[in-house]
């Protein structure tokens, strides 16, 4: 019985000692235990404007030209639009919103509205207003940090995070066939 108790005590002491030597020493033990041996991504620098990007053309409305003066085609309807982001790399949305200076995952409704004159178009021809959302595209550079020996250390790994912000609708008037 005494030998068994000694063995149990020795094993318990060995486990306690191994835990103390494995855990990194920092001023924040809960944070260190969570991040020990881990990695994280941080934003490096400011956002960079990349350009504009558009989606595919969508059909808004069709109308037939009557050949008279003041003949127009008008489209006005509510459309759902959104901002979007390619990835987060584990960075919080709040931090990304601040880095890009807009809400990176916001959705809302807005009106798509356009009028074209059909005066001078051949009588009886069909026309369509098409529209597509135009987004401004931005990017920010991120860098990976590894938690080694109780400190965050910069690595050579970098990634770009891209975000698109809705800006406006583009429109065009195209000749089309009669509706079916």
Question: What report would you give on this structure?
Answer:
This protein is of the alpha+beta class. The protein folds into two domains: 1-36; 39-176, Proaerolysin, Chain A, domain 3 (Beta Complex), CATH 2.170.15. Helices cover 20% and strands 53% of the residues. The protein is built from three helices and seven strands; from the N terminus they run ααββββαβββ. The chain has helices at 2-22, 29-35, 93-100, and strands at 39-54, 58-64, 72-82, 84-85, 107-117, 126-148, 151-176. The strands form two sheets. Strands 1, 2, 4, 6 and 7 form a five-stranded antiparallel beta sheet that branches. The protein has a two-stranded antiparallel sheet with strand order 3-5. β6 and β7 (151-176) form a beta hairpin. The longest helix is centred in the first third of the chain and has 21 residues, at 2-22. It is elongated. 11% of the residues are buried. Mean pLDDT is 84; it is low at 16-35.
């Amino acid at each position: 019985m005494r030998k068994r108790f000694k063995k149990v005590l020795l094993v318990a002491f060995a486990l306690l000692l191994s835990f103390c030597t494995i855990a990194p020493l920092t001023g924040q033990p809960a944070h260190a235990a969570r991040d020990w041996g881990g990695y994280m991504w941080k934003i490096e620098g400011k956002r960079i404007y990349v350009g504009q990007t558009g989606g595919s053309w969508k059909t808004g409305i069709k109308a037939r030209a009557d050949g008279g003066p003041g003949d127009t085609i008008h489209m006005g309807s509510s459309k759902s639009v959104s901002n979007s982001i390619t990835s987060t790399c584990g960075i919080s949305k709040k931090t990304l919103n601040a880095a890009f200076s807009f809400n990176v995952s916001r959705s809302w409704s807005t009106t798509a509205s356009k009028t074209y004159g059909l005066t001078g178009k051949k009588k009886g021809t069909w026309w369509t207003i098409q529209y597509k959302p135009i987004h401004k595209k931005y990017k920010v550079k991120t860098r990976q940090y590894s938690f080694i020996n109780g400190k965050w250390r910069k690595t050579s790994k970098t990634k770009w995070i891209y975000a698109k912000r809705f800006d406006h609708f583009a429109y065009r008037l195209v000749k089309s066939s009669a509706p079916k």
